[in-house]
Amino acid sequence: MAPYASDDHTTAGEADEPRAGRRKAARYVVPVAVMGVAAATIGLVPAIADSGDPDLPEITAQQLVQKIAESDVQRLSGTVKITTDLGLPDLGGLESSLLSGAGRADDGGSSADPSARLTELVSGTHTLRVAADGPDRQKLSLLEDAAEYSLIRDGKDVWGYDSASNEVYHGTAEEGAARGEHRPPATPKDFAEQALKAVDGTTSVTVDGTAQVAGRDAYKLLVEPRQEGSTVGAVSVAVDAETGLPLKFTLTPASGGAAVVDVGFTQVSFARPAASTFDFTPPKGAEVTEDDELGRAAEDAERHGESGRGLAEELGGLGGARGQDGVRTIGEGWSTIAAFDTGGEGLPAAGSGGDAGGFLDSLGDKATGKFGSGTVFSTRLVNALITEDGKVYVGAVTKDALVKAADAGK
């Protein structure tokens, strides 16, 4: 992230647009949508340590964001706890598989494929072990009740291993980058960097005292929208006072209640991890799937109309390749809405009857306006309006904001 050019605020870059991909599109729609609308303007309120919190030197919000930008931690190891509560509809456990889409063994993929496994982080509470020794040696392990999934990069080699199925994925860093494959955010740094990519005057950013996280002294950066209509209440980032590394990230909704995303280190060390941490040899008897085999499996599935697209892509192409070329944005900052036309007839009207109509009625809310009628699908953060004529409006905004945008589009 580039240094700030002024004492007040400046644009640090646009939020990344969702990447198209045969099997990857729907899998990342939630993390991308959650973070993609974030923006910030830098306040100059100094941090004053509260009683009982670390007594650290005063710092302005601009200096603290600069500290994050200049952080260059190359070596670390630790444990991360991540809790995500998007308020997705209860589909009896199907929501995770719908979000992950293809890439599992039952649709021609591998259960060790990281593009499928790590989308589990979009729901529930998970414990991760992370380690890094420079940009080319990294390891992330997702700990489960009786199993473990590990993603390891050692130089050009990328390995994924699912101990439950004894399946192995193998690819190279160049292959993954060429297709735009990147794991979803998993550490406080990942989330903080995405949240601070866009910097403008729609947000108040201040320093909100100090704290201790994983035994480290930290400053607390508080990010709050100045605009009405956003479903985001606030973003809080605990920043290591010594290194500038984000240690904890919390996003709370405007509606109140538990955090939508809460991810933080419970233990962290900046010592160099042992070299053996990044060693991996497929266990005896393991099924190894090479990256190019996964690509061919996806192509075969698409040719037969069995690509296993995720729920978001099925509901009008949200986050998917369909209609992406025609995406336009309405508004700015926290009230940004992405709009596109699927080119289809939209969804069955609410109350129209039939299996499809009844199922959609149970998931969404009827919406009407000058644009006509449609259905709003809601989470605690991201809402989407899909009109009967196939137009889609989506953003971290309220239902009223989506209806207003659809009316203005007529």
Would you give an account of this structure?
The protein is an alpha+beta fold. The protein folds into two domains: 26-299, outer membrane lipoprotein receptor (LolB), chain A, CATH 2.50.20; 311-408, no CATH class. Helix content is 20%, strand content 31%. Strands 7-8-9-10-11-1-2-3-4-5-6-12 form a twelve-stranded mixed β-sheet. Strands 13-14-18-17-16-15 form a six-stranded antiparallel β-sheet. A hairpin with a 3-residue loop joins strand 2 and strand 3 (137-143). The protein is globular.
What is the count of helical runs? 10
Low-confidence stretches: 1-51, 91-106, 178-182, 294-324
**CATH T-level topology of the largest domain:** outer membrane lipoprotein receptor (LolB), chain A
Helix residue percentage: 10-25%
By CATH, the architecture of the largest domain is named: Clam
Largest sheet properties: 12 strands, mixed
Overall average residue pLDDT: 75
- Domain module count: 2
Distance between the termini: 38 Å
Say which CATH homologous superfamily of the largest domain is assigned: Lipoprotein localisation LolA/LolB/LppX
